[in-house]
Amino acid sequence: MLLPFFYTGAVSNEIPIYLVGMMGVGKSTVGAQLATRLKRAFVDTDREVERVAGRTIADIFETEGERRFRALEAEAIRAASADAAVVALGGGAVAAPGVMERLLAGGEIIFLMADPSLLISRIGDPASRPLLAGLDHAAQLERLETLLAERNPFYQQARIQIDARGTAEEVVDRIVEELEAESE
């Protein structure tokens, strides 16, 4: 096994790196490993929302609705943008008005791509995913396909797009390779 190297190439250590993509694509897992590799802090905006709100995202959706969750999410993104961290965003964060424009203006966006069938296999128990909770497998797959179609125009604005199949280490390697290619 090769020891990880630490990338210090083209992406400035002064700007955040945003990981975007659908739920289940691995933004949190990949983000934590990428941050370690790049010697940066890691921020998961979903976990920040839960920390600030003092409850789970599912509970926020249930008691206050998606609108309140999106407002808390927007604040978590603003706070995370102040640092040059690796930031994992919730799947729908980029669809909120003005979010992509702010991210593009102040950081590097990396879109992690995966087929909805892979996403379903990674999500596990959908009860913690408010947009999938209560749906059978076929309806979950259909919902993911619909969400991907709605969000894809936003995701496609990312300069770097990475295939998220394989292990988290493999995905991190692909990201680092892309970042290195940018420095050449």
What brief labels describe this structure?
single chain, 184 residues, alpha/beta, Rossmann fold, 5-stranded parallel β-sheet, disordered N terminus
Question: What does it look like?
Answer:
The chain has seven helices and five strands. It has 184 residues and is of the alpha/beta class. The protein has one domain: 3-Layer(aba) Sandwich (Rossmann fold), CATH 3.40.50. Strands 2-3-1-4-5 form a five-stranded parallel beta sheet, sandwiched between helices. Helix 5 (116-123) crosses helix 6. It is globular and about 50 Å long.
Fourth-tier CATH superfamily name:
P-loop containing nucleotide triphosphate hydrolases
Counting DSSP H or I runs of 4 or more residues, the number of helices is: 7
Helix/strand/pairing category: alpha/beta
Radius of gyration, in Å, reads 16 Å
Number of domain units: 1
Helix-strand sequence: EHEHHEHEHHEH
Helix proportion:
40-55%
CATH architecture: 3-Layer(aba) Sandwich
Distance between the termini: 26 Å
Shape verdict: globular
Low-pLDDT windows of residues: 1-10
Instruction: Report the average pLDDT across residues.
Output: 89
CATH class (first level) name: Alpha Beta
Trace the largest sheet across and list its strands. 2-3-1-4-5
**Overall strand count:** 5
Portion of residues in beta strands equals 5-15%
